[in-house]
Amino acid sequence: MFLKVAVSSLVSRKGSAVMTLMAISVAIFVLLGIEQIRQQARESFASTVSGVDLIVGAKTGSLNLLLYSVFRIGSPTDNISWQAYREIADADDVAWTIPISLGDSHKGYRVVGTTEAFFKYFSFGKKRRLAFYKGEAFEGTFDAVLGSEVATALGYSMGTEVILAHGLASASFTKHDNQPFVVVGVLAPTGTPVDHTIHVRLEGIEAIHAGGSKVPIGAFAPANRPTTNFSEPESITAFMLGLKSRMSTFNVQRQINEFAGEPLMAILPGVALSELWQTMSIFENVLRLISALVLLAAVLGMGAVLLASIRERHQEIHLLRMMGASPFYLFCLVEMEALILCLLGMLLGGVCLYTALFVTGDAIFSRFGIYLDATLLTPEAALMLVVVLLATLVAAAVPSLKMYTSARNIT
After folding, report:
1. Which residue, 334, 319, 347, is CA-closest to 402?
2. What residue ranges do the domains of the chain occupy?
3. Cα 235 from chain centroid?
4. Is there a contact between 56 and 88 (Cβ–Cβ < 8 Å)?
5. How does strand 197-201 pair with strand 143-146?
6. Is the pLDDT assigned to residue 287 strictly greater than 90?
């Protein structure tokens, strides 16, 4: 009976009730949406590189090594000799390695010299492998594979010649224009730094820095398969490695950090990514503040609507009092109306958010690299909804007291 009276009262004021319901729904949508994005952004950031047990570079800070090897930001303090790389790569505990050579660019985009192992073993997100949108992995010395953003921004396609430049500036006067690379593949979007990178073979990097002395003029045939075989590089920038057993991770890390041949450093990418995310915690706090302000505005708006409705409900109050309703009953009636609006707003906002995540999840992942799981019933979300309910009851206390006072004045 009590619930029926509360519903009937809301229906009689359906205009203001619907507007209040929409405001609460939008607030719930934003609140849960921002929390979902915040959590998934943290997880996606932590899995920018996935399935890699260790990243090895010259002795430096862990964040610096992470930034230039994964995010292509900054520069290494030194290189790793090829001999040291081979010695570690050939260790019994190591299953695979991905060498990385940095230092060149093309129109502001970083160039990474690597091997076929990059396309075979590198993964991101929840261990998603790299996929090709067009073409295939490089085979020839002067083949190039573009990240999706590079291909889109520069308008490059299969067969386009790419001239690398020394250094990282967008405008460089030291160009290797005597030895262009040819695009043979374009990677599918990943939402990671891979999208902004041009990938070539280590042999190609060695060739362009040899100044042409190792490459005959006739090497640039249409098939892009020069006949010259290049020796191993003298050094590389860093490398990623996967282990046969995760149990040996810390042991291998310690051995690399104590490597006698030259000063090296091995980091756990997950730990370094978490450390880097902590430095950006201010953005998480800003998102939470925005959510709180949106929720506060919606709850206060609902309280204002209920308070304004009390002035229009003198006849309803008088009728309920004549039927024997106590002032406390009318107090609880207003609280129940607020609770109904809040619960309906949660339901509507949650359904809209779930639908939005389900429809746009893949597009957001491809564009921003954030995998948005449509699961909303997390412990954090449940706690937020409880807080919303309590805030609603508190905000409705003022109009409820007004209702209580008006009822007591009616004898």
Report:
1. 334
2. 2-45+280-408, 54-267
3. 33
4. yes
5. antiparallel
6. no
